[in-house]
Amino acid sequence: MVDPKTLRDITFFADLTEDELKAISPIINKKNYKVGDAIFKENEDGTSMYIIKKGEVKACKTAPDNELLTLTLMKDGDIFGEMSFLDGRPRSATIIAIADTEVYTIEKADFENLLDKQPRMVYKLMRSIVFHIHVIVRGMNSRYMEMVNYMWGRKR
After folding, report:
1. Which tens digits make up the pLDDT trace of 65-100?
2. Measured CA angle at 61 (ends 57, 62), to 5 deg
3. What is the DSSP letter of 26?
4. pTM of the model
5. Of the residues 11, 18, 57, 62, which has the maximum number of CB atoms within 10 A of its CB?
6. C-beta of residue 101 within 8 angstroms of C-beta of residue 40
7. CATH number for the domain whose boundaries are 4-152
């Protein structure tokens, strides 16, 4: 459990009321990672979502030669692990701390238990997750189009 007051400054929780922050704080746990720690690895099972309170991590995929390729960097206020949190499938990437990092975690089962008690709050948080995924997809679309234009030039 974390102090609800510490959640107020995190963008992910910005839409929540004081009462909603008090309702969710008992299911949030704090974890700390040192530089180089793997928070989780690609293909591991996992049902936790992470919110970076302070620090920086990188998301990596394993190349065919087993080299880790960095996909993106994330910092204070960013979330990760949301895909497995939502769909229950194995982790799609490895997350490694590249600075001393403090995260808040939410377990899927605890989150789902709030659904009956706090449906409006769960809706707000799910909306934040969807917006986060939306930003990722738009960024991927832009990078894909840049790559296509670079490789084949503008044809249409």
Report:
1. 989 999 889 999 999 999 999 999 999 999 999 999
2. 130
3. G
4. 0.85
5. 57
6. no
7. 2.60.120.10
